[in-house]
Every structure is written in structure tokens, then in C-alpha cells.
Design brief:
CATH superfamily: Aldolase class I
Number of domains: 1
Number of strands: 10
Order of helices and strands: EEEHEHEHEHEHHEHEHEHHHHH
CATH class: Alpha Beta
Strand content: 5-15%
Number of helices: 13
Strand order of the largest sheet: 4-1-10-9-8-7-6-5
CATH topology: TIM Barrel
Radius of gyration: 18 Å
Structural class: alpha/beta
Helix content: 40-55%
CATH architecture: Alpha-Beta Barrel
Distance between the termini: 38 Å
Length: 294
């Protein structure tokens, strides 16, 4: 499985309609992603608005992703929570549903110590036979998982297989690899730095932009994984304005607006997120026009 844990994985949006899940739009998005050559699918992550999904909705989305994918690409199910018991429940459900791996975010709001983070991930990993990807996103969770804690988890938990790093600090690739080598697969959680991340030793990206351009994001990853960083950089630079636009306001509101312009989802997000403003809409339109997508 570790060989499949690389390349471009899409951090999937969750389409809504009339306040509920738009499963028809979601399944159509999955089919299109697979047809476009994406390497993997990540339902129920940050981009999927997991904090505002009910437990039933969360589990339904993972089940639908597995059912639709039918083994054609790996499914890395988002199963994190700020409550360890809840993360264990989501993780066990994902394994039962047939997911290939799980993405577990650092517990947010609680603000655990490094020991608390270690015990949280160790407990989740012990509850499943699936590969576990640790999701480090201090900008949202307020806690930063240290290299020492990640190395300790790699040593003590055989099925902790990798890290999604959304710190934006490219040095973290080198400082962590100094401790764990190739033991952990490192995914970038930032589209804008994904090529540089791979050049430092990363093996993939869990992408927001690939909701809109899965073929292009997957191709950039293939080029960089093959060591063709100049060509990967050139392809990446074409998407600079779009990458910037995806974070002009709190994600996933911008990418859902962009998806609505491409007729793939309604733009609606759940409170406390709100529709993006006029200036942000103009920036996104400009980026899509520049790439001849609209």
C-alpha cells in the first residue's frame, strides 16, 4: 500500500444542496476525478467541511467514496476529531467501509501537549489495521506536532505510514527525514509549495486545487516524482494565480465557488463559513479565465 501512498490526492469538497448532502454531485465529482487520472481521493477532510458534518453524513460520504471508487484509486478517509474516542470510531468505520488509509488531523481546540498528541495518534493507530496519515495543520488546530513526536510515532506504531504537512515550512521535510528517513511518506498539504516539497523529499500532495484540475495536478506530481523538477515547476507556475485564489478567503469557500462556476457543485458552505465576497469572486473568475476554464 505504501507505494500507492504518493502522487496527487484530492482533498474533496462536499457538495451541498438545500442544506443537505448533494450525493449525486459528489459521485459525479468522484467519477470525473478518477477519469482525469487522480492518484487518490480524500473525503471528509478540512476541504470537505468535516467539522460541520453530522456523524451520519461523515460516514455516508466515506461509504459512497469507497463504493464509487471500486478500487480504481485509493481512498484515504478523513477520520480525525478533537475527541480521541470519536476519531477511533470514525477510523474503525472507515476500515469496515473499505477505505485504503485514514487521514487523522491533530486534535483541534483542546491544545494537547506533545505527549497528548502522541497518545492520541497511538490510540487511533492501535484501533485499526489501515495505514494512518498524521495531519499536521497548526494554522487550524493550534498545535504543531513536533518532529520528535512524529519520529516517536513512527518508531512505536507500525501502521503510522505518513504525514500530511500543512505547516508551509519546507524545512520540516528535511528535519523530519533526518529522524525517520523514508519510514514515513510525506505529503504536502499546500498546493503552492508542492513542487518544492517534493524536491526536498516529499512524495505527494493532498490538494485543494485538484478539485478543479485533477489531471494537471496529477501530472505535476508525476513529473516531480520522476525527478523532472524543471518541467514540473513550469506546469506549476501556470497555476499560481489559481492556487492563490483558492485561499483568498477561508477554504473551502473559494474552491466551492470555483466549482460552482465549473458546474460541479453549488457554492454553498455551512455556517460558520459564509459565501466569499465580491473581490474574491473576481479573483477566482480571473484565475479560471486565465486558464481558459470558463
Amino acid at each position: 500500500m505504501q507505494k500507492k501512498l504518493q502522487g496527487a490526492y484530492t482533498a474533496l469538497i462536499t457538495p451541498f444542496k438545500a442544506g443537505g448532502l448533494d450525493l449525486a454531485a459528489f459521485e459525479a465529482l468522484l467519477e470525473w476525478q478518477i477519469a482525469q487520472g487522480i492518484d487518490g481521493l480524500v473525503p471528509c477532510g478540512t476541504t470537505g467541511e468535516s467539522p460541520t458534518l453530522s456523524h451520519e453524513e461523515h460516514k455516508t460520504l466515506i461509504e459512497r467514496t469507497v463504493k464509487t471508487a471500486r478500487g480504481r484509486v485509493p481512498v484515504m478517509a478523513g477520520t480525525g476529531s478533537n475527541a480521541t474516542a470519536e476519531a477511533v470510531d470514525f477510523t474503525r468505520h472507515a476500515e469496515k467501509a473499505g477505505a485504503d488509509a485514514v487521514l487523522v488531523v491533530a486534535p483541534y481546540y483542546n491544545k494537547p501537549t506533545q505527549e497528548g498528541l502522541y497518545q492520541h495518534f497511538k490510540t487511533v493507530a492501535a484501533a485499526t489495521g489501515l495505514p494512518v496519515i498524521v495531519y499536521n495543520i497548526p494554522g487550524r488546530s493550534v498545535v504543531n506536532i513536533s518532529d520528535a513526536t512524529l519520529a516517536r510515532l513512527a518508531e512505536d506504531c507500525p501502521n503510522i505510514a505518513g504525514v500530511k504537512d500543512a505547516t508551509g515550512d519546507l524545512a520540516r521535510v528535511s528535519t523530519l527525514r533526518r529522524l525517520v528517513g523514508d519510514r514515513l511518506v510525506l505529503f504536502s498539504g499546500e498546493d503552492m509549495t508542492a513542487v518544492g516539497f517534493n524536491a526536498m523529499g516529499g512524495r505527494g500532495v493532498i490538494s485543494v486545487t485538484s478539485n478543479l484540475l485533477p489531471k494537471e495536478i496529477a501530472e505535476i506530481q508525476r513529473l516531480s516524482l520522476a525527478g523532472d523538477y524543471l518541467k514540473a515547476r513550469d506546469r506549476h507556475e501556470r497555476l499560481t494565480l489559481l492556487h492563490q485564489a483558492m485561499f483568498c478567503e477561508t477554504s473551502p469557500a473559494p474552491v466551492k465557488y470555483a466549482a460552482s462556476l465549473l458546474k460541479r457543485s453549488e457554492a454553498s458552505v455551512r455556517l460558520p463559513l459564509v459565501e466569499i465576497g465580491a473581490a474574491s469572486k473576481a479573483m477566482i473568475r480571473e484565475a479560471l479565465v486565465e486558464l481558459k476554464l470558463i
